[in-house]
Each structure stands twice: as structure tokens, then as C-alpha cells.
Amino acid sequence: RAKFSGKHCLAVFDHAMHESMSRRLALEESLRTVLKDGGLRLDFQPIFDMVTGDIVGLESLVRWDHATQGLISPADFIPVAEETGLIVPIGRWILEEACRTIHRISGMRRGVKPISVSVNVSKRQIADHDFVELLGDVLQTYEVPAELLNLEITESLIMETPEDITERLTRISNLGVQIHMDDFGTGHSSLSCLHRFPIDVLKIDRSFVATMQPGDDYESIVHAIITLAHNLDTKVIAEGIETPRQLQQLRELDCDCGQGYLYSKPKSIDELEDLLLEVKPTPSCNPAFGFERYE
Ligand code: C2E
Ligand code: MG
Ligand code: MG
Ligand code: MG
Fold it and tell me: In DSSP terms, which residues pair with 58 in a beta bridge?
């Protein structure tokens, strides 16, 4: 056995490590100029009212079209942006682009009930001292009513920097921007944080939606989350709805809104134009609202 853990194995390991380190360094290098290179864009995933089927919002999701590597997932480059601090200028661009888009959508949908746009923000961005001021400036620059912007934060943000983050979130909330707790149930926050922090909406993580079966423990957890949220005047959005059965189950659990591939994948505003311009004559309860139409 000892023979195999010798020099040769070490060399292989070294090589693999070297590969991944240089890939990571290359990623970091091109991330440094990504804004200048115009490599980022935002896609948007519709969020629907579970009962009426009306679109109530969009979640913005950043995309990186890399010149040689093709599309790079945010799950791969956002962590690098966070570690290097590049998330601050990149996050600022995302916020501005989202606000430009809100302005554009308002123009497209004159006379129709406005929809909000949710932007994912990292801990590092909110921790930046100028963040609230930046937020106010961007809203003003793009003439966006604060009510049309939501910020999605994660449980780790609240758990790891509790003191000044409370004050920061309160100031954001006072601007009129809603705060949505993303991926709820996957982190380590306790349910009591819903009460301690100004959180307007809970987003139930996709993993619960994917796992729960009628009558099982996961369904009980989701039910408990929804009931508690409602008692605290907090709305609930379910993430990652992929099947009509999941949709039906979540409706029965009294979930307010949902998003997922069943309704629509994340798309560009141009691709979503028909959906955004659609005005429903009777926004009444229609159990058969057309999730397939937007595919
Ligand atoms: P998230 O905020 O929880 O976003 C939801 C992710 O689930 C998105 O992945 C979305 O495309 C995907 N998704 C939506 N519906 C379904 C479904 O029905 N089935 C499945 N399997 N997946 C679904 P995406 O776009 O790859 O983003 C991954 C994560 O990267 C996001 O998770 C978020 O944490 C982060 N991210 C994305 N955009 C930004 C951004 O602008 N800023 C920051 N800080 N983070 C971002
Ligand atoms: Mg999100
Ligand atoms: Mg999420
Ligand atoms: Mg997620």
C-alpha cells in the first residue's frame, strides 16, 4: 500500500492541484476586466402569484459570457468575486443594470400593475460602508421607486455579521426596498431571525420543493415555514418548481408565490417581452394557467 502513496501519487495530486489553481487564477484575471469587456448580462426569471397565475416579479440572475470559455455559471464565479472583493464593483453594475431594467419594464407596462425585480446581493456588498448610500443613488439615477426593488440576502449574511447588519438592513428597509431571505432552510439561521430582522419575504429553497412528497416530513417543514411566515406577516415564494404536482402541493400549503422551470427559465427581457406585455382580462383563479406557454 505504502508503495502507491509514494512519489508518483504525489506528483499526480500536484498536477491536479496545479491545474485547478491556474484555472482559478485565469478566472480571477478575466473577472478583473469583465466589466470593461462587457462580459456580464442579466437574465430574469418570472415569479408568479400561485392563485391567480399573474406575474408579480422577476429575479435577476447574472450571466457571464466568457470570450473563450463560453457561459460561466454564477455559482462558479460569484464566490471568486466575493473572495477577491471584485463583487463590490460587479455588484454595483448588477444593481444599476437591474434598475435600468425596472425603468424599461415600467415603460413597457404603462397602466399595468407594476412588477418588482429582485437582485441577489452578497454579504460583502452589504458590509461595504457606502452600500445604503449607493442604493439610494442608483434608485434616484434610474428613477426607480424603491418599492419595485427587492434585495435577496442569504441566511449566512445574518448569522455571521449580526450587529451592524441589523442597522444596515433597517436603513435599506426604510428606503422602501424589500428584503427577501433567499434559500431559506439551507443555512443555520433560526426562525427567530424572521422576527429580529426586517424581512418581507421568505424564499423556500429549491431542495425542499424537489424533495417533499405529500404527507412526508419535508412537507411538514414547508408547511411550518409557511404558517410561521404568515403569522409574522411575511410572504413566501417557493423556488425551483418543476412539476405541476409540486405546484399543486404548494398551493394546498397556502404558499403565496412561486418560480421555477415549470413557469419559465431565466431569460432576457427581450425574450420575456410577450409575457411582460400580457394583460389578463380576468385575473381570477384559473387553475390551468399556462405554464407551458412561456417555455
Ligand atoms: P439563487 O439566488 O437561489 O437563484 C436560483 C437559482 O436556481 C438560479 O441559478 C436559477 O436559474 C435556478 N433555478 C430556477 N428555477 C429552477 C428550477 O426549476 N430548477 C432548477 N434546477 N434550478 C432552477 P443560477 O442562475 O445558476 O444562479 C445560482 C446562484 O448564483 C443564485 O442562486 C445566487 O446565489 C447566485 N447569483 C446569481 N446571480 C447573482 C447576482 O447577480 N449576484 C449575486 N451576489 N449572486 C448571484
Ligand atoms: Mg436568489
Ligand atoms: Mg434561491
Ligand atoms: Mg439557491
Answer: 46, 117
